[in-house]
């Protein structure tokens, strides 16, 4: 596919191959953007930002709603593309396309609700004759840097709020999964997006991505990805707004007396969907000692029934991880945990990029799976005696995106809500839960800022304060 540069489809001689994670076959290739393309995209985005700022809210909402309709109209094409470049199952891909359309619908609604408020100047002595308010205005040019795991929906979480707020956008998709973003660019143009206001540039993150990050004309960078790359962006961005949704090592606490089957279901749904390649995948599970053995037995029994294989087949429940390098790393982490004393209850092996769903027991806290982000199909399950112990274990990481707790005790729930150091706490469901309207982001090294359509719009706008003297 060609890349989209200010509404025009451009090709270049240097290419990047997009490969099917399941077997390594070439799906397509995309051009590597050159300096000329980057400059064209940015200079046009500046003009596009002026156009978007003058575009009324109803018209921006119309573009967003049109985009949602076009996404659903092209659902099968986009879903098949996601299967081939990401390796997620056809069911997961179809769900992502439908979710993406809903994100654009949400943004359509929020585009009509961007407003400020009046300010009570008579509350300040000497300012009784002043009146004022603040309004929100678009930041200008937004750079959206998108990850490989849920590329279409997470691109939408950046692009749709940017349009709602009246900004222009440059999208930099990951080199592993750029095709869906290019299709989205095509649909945005068809939906009525001004050509100057949308570009999708392909190429390596270290060159194309960082060149965009460093440019002073970019006003906001919205990035989803690893902590390490997030730190590089922060170091290179200069004086601009940043929205960074970074990694996690997500804990789930299961207290005594809860419905064990529900907790097991949440662990499996949260730990193995998209082969565990989600920022808020369940990775560490802390189960009360009284129900630990029962929980483990039910969990292992169900995990061993997960159908792993070709993601193109309807019966497949879990597909491959993104590439063999990551598959090898994931299994190395399992082996490190086993070497340090953990027990492998099931899984722990791979065939090319198909990593078997894995459950590790009694895992030492010094292991990588207990301290870093696995981004693979594995969960570590340990027991605890007191809730204080479980909360301390959950907090013992540099990450803080989301956490979950199953409990029937309101006092336990409130204690966890108050003491867990995470941007989201999910009670009586898995921490993998996310509704696209809610604020989403983390504490500590899990990032800066919040996504969720309304809250992303706040990030992508500036406040302007207006003060009027009414004294005659």
TrEMBL record:
GO MF assignments: lactaldehyde dehydrogenase (NAD+) activity
Pfam families: Aldedh
Domain (Aldehyde dehydrogenase) ranges: 9-466
Protein's recorded name: Aldehyde dehydrogenase
Keyword check for Metal-binding: no
Keywords: Oxidoreductase
InterPro entries cross-referenced by the UniProt entry: Ald_DH/histidinol_DH, Ald_DH_C, Ald_DH_N, Aldehyde_DH_dom, ALDH-related_metabolic_enz
Family: Belongs to the aldehyde dehydrogenase family.
């Amino acid at each position: 596919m060609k890349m989209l540069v200010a509404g025009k489809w451009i090709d270049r001689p240097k290419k990047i191959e997009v490969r099917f994670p399941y077997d390594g076959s070439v799906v397509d290739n995309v051009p590597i953007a050159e300096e000329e393309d980057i400059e064209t995209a940015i200079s046009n985005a500046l003009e596009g930002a002026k156009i978007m700022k003058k575009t009324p809210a109803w018209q921006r909402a119309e573009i967003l709603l049109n985009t949602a309709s076009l996404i659903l109209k092209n659902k099968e094409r986009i879903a098949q593309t996601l299967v081939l470049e990401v390796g997620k199952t056809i069911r997961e891909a179809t769900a992502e396309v439908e979710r993406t359309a809903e994100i654009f619908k949400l943004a359509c609604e929020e585009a009509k609700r961007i407003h400020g408020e009046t300010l009570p100047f008579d509350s300040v002595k000497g300012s009784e004759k002043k009146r004022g308010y603040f309004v929100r205005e678009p930041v200008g040019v937004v750079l959206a840097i998108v990850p490989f795991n849920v590329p279409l929906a997470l691109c939408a979480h950046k692009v749709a709020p940017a349009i709602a707020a009246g900004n222009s956008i440059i999208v930099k998709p990951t080199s592993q999964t750029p095709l869906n973003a290019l299709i989205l660019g095509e649909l945005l143009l068809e939906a009525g997006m001004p050509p100057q206001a949308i570009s999708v540039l392909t190429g390596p993150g270290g060159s194309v991505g960082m060149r965009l990050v460093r440019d002073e004309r970019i006003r906001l960078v919205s990035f989803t990805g690893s902590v390490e790359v997030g730190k590089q962006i922060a170091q290179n961005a200069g004086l601009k707004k940043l929205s960074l949704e970074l990694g996690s090592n997500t804990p789930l606490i299961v207290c005594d007396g809860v419905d064990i089957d529900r907790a097991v279901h949440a662990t499996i749904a949260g730990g193995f969907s998209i082969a565990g390649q989600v920022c808020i995948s369940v990775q560490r599970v802390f189960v009360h000692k009284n129900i630990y053995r029962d929980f483990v037995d039910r969990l292992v029994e169900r995990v061993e029934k997960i159908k792993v294989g070709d993601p193109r087949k309807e019966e497949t429940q879990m597909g491959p991880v993104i590439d063999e390098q990551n598959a090898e790393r994931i299994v190395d982490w399992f082996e490190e945990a086993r070497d340090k004393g953990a027990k492998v209850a099931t899984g722990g092996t791979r065939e090319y990029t198909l990593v078997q769903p894995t459950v590790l027991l009694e895992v030492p806290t010094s292991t990588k799976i207990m301290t870093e982000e696995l981004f693979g199909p594995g969960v570590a399950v340990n027991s605890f005696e007191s809730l204080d112990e479980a909360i301390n274990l959950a907090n013992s990481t540099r990450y803080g995106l989301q956490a979950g707790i199953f409990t029937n005790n309101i006092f336990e729930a409130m204690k966890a809500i108050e003491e867990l150091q995470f941007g989201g706490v999910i009670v009586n469901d898995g921490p993998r839960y996310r509704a696209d309207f809610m604020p989403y982001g983390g504490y500590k090294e899990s990032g800066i800022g919040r996504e969720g359509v309304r809250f992303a719009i706040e990030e992508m706008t500036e406040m302007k304060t207006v003060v009027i003297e009414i004294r005659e």
